[in-house]
Design goal:
The protein has eleven helices and no strands. It is mostly helical. It has one domain.
């Protein structure tokens, strides 16, 4: 019993840290763009490179697992698609809104997969629909509140890529090594895209360090933690729990970026959290 309690406590701690790191990515990205501190491509390139570097060092220093996994070009591509669309989207939308769109699409992707595999229970489906209603409330146009369609579609693509990335991650036995390799593979697509790029690149001192922190710490280590968690909880639970990230991101946007907290955003957040509460019942495997 004590062993189970310890295991559950560690799982909960890893989950909380992973969600905080995921939320921090949105805030760090927006902070990097303040006063045009960095362009979206450079932010993505530094983010992925720093993630690859930090994780490579961690893999080199740790020998705790004999399980060797090489990652895959597909996972590297999905990581690249998520990261590049994420960056360009945040040039157009606020922190909390972007996070809600991102993880709303993650939920749709993972719930869709669960439905195809017949892995979803009625209570989780109800919770998912409630959470999706919250996303619809967020995107409902009003005179005081509008969302860039271009920013929405870019973040939606990022969410789909991250959702597939999370689904495929359930079969991974060595999260640290696999994530390290995935970051390495993602750099191939960054280099490939650079040949077709037609925009002026610029990197300030602050922009560089925000991108480095986003890649090396909140992305690299955060994704390892997320992989370790997603293996132990149901796909539906994982997808819906991630919808708590926008709440933290929104608070970060208000505190650090002076973004506006509207009634529509508050209402959407309450509805989404209600859906999470319903869907997460008995979500952890015992």
């Amino acid at each position: 019993m004590q062993a189970n309690n310890h295991s559950d406590s560690l799982l909960t701690l890893n989950l909380i840290l992973a969600l905080l790191f995921l939320a921090s990515n949105s805030v760090l990205c927006k902070l990097a763009f303040v006063n045009e501190g960095i362009d979206a491509f450079s932010f993505t390139a530094i983010r992925l490179f720093s993630g690859a570097l930090v994780l490579f060092i961690l893999v080199f220093l740790t020998t705790q697992s004999k399980i060797k996994q090489k990652g895959s070009l597909l996972l590297g591509f999905l990581l690249f698609v998520y990261a590049i669309c994420f960056s360009y989207s945040y040039l157009l939308i606020d922190t909390g809104i972007g996070a809600l769109i991102l993880f709303g699409m993650v939920q749709i992707t993972m719930i869709g997969y669960a439905m195809v595999k017949k892995m979803i229970t009625p209570i989780k489906l109800v919770g998912a629909l409630i959470a999706f209603l919250g996303l619809a409330v967020l995107l409902f146009p009003s005179k005081e509140f509008t969302v860039s369609l271009e920013g929405f579609f870019l973040m939606a693509i990022a969410g789909i890529a991250w959702g597939i990335y999370s689904i495929l991650g359930k079969n991974i036995q060595n999260p640290l090594q696999t994530t390290s390799n995935n970051f390495f593979y993602s750099m191939f697509f960054i280099v490939l895209l650079s040949f077709f790029l037609n925009e002026k690149l610029h990197v300030s001192h602050s922009g560089f360090w925000f991108a480095f922190l986003s890649g090396g710490i909140t992305s690299g280590i955060g994704y390892v933690l997320w992989y370790s968690v997603v293996q132990k909880i149901q796909t539906t639970t994982a997808s819906i729990i991630q919808l708590s990230v926008p709440v933290v991101s929104t608070m970060g946007g208000i505190l650090f970026l002076q973004e506006e907290l509207t009634f529509q955003l508050i209402l959407a957040t309450i509805i989404i959290l209600s859906g999470i509460a319903i869907s997460s019942m008995k979500g952890f495997k015992r």
